[in-house]
Here is the input.
Amino acid sequence: MTVTTAHETGAKVARIVADFPIFQHPTSRGKRLVYLDSAATSQKPRAVIDALVDYYERYNANIHRGVYEIAERATNAYEEARAKVARFVGADARDLIWVRNTTEAINLVAYTWGAQHIHAGDAILTTELEHHSDLIPWQELCRRTGA
Ligand SMILES: Cc1ncc(COP(=O)(O)O)c(C=O)c1O
Here is the structure.
């Protein structure tokens, strides 16, 4: 068993926080920013910000359509990201679908998998505490199917 001390954990957290430029700036009240709204908008580490700037400055173009150099570069980067994320979550890259947000992702599952596998009489367990994006798609699925 590995024992981690509070000091080691603190040092680890400090290293992670150092990756996020937004946490390097005090709030308007001179306090350290504490951010707990990641489900709505996640803060971005320096590597992500740099990659976005690099993309917009050097190869911002349509993916999968343009037949010119920067479009091909954008397509490659897009597909490389899909492969990386698939490896990270242990999935096949062909099974990984990019969506714009949680709401779109949950609706996609409810309208596709849900339509195929959920039937009248089935029960979907959730709580009133869920955000609308994770409550309404299931309520709507129940309404459509009688689950
Ligand atoms: C707790 C929580 N869940 C889900 C969502 C929906 O996320 P998205 O905007 O990615 O659809 C939000 C958005 O604010 C949220 O705060």
